[in-house]
Design brief:
0% strand, mainly alpha, 4 helices, elongated
Amino acid sequence: MRRLYDEYRGDTITDIHKSFANLDKVTALIRKDRLLQSPFGEGFKAVQYEFEIRQRSLGDLQVIV
């Protein structure tokens, strides 16, 4: 980002181009990039959730046996 700021002589992202003031567009671009990088939602939170669910299932099985 610093390189972009220097290249376009701006201090904030809206100084680079006025269209960046539209946060909905920026949010959509970030979301699109995240979906392209992790199309199945395999982010840290998803892995953590899956781990916790499996741990609970294993705990239930140990009680039953």
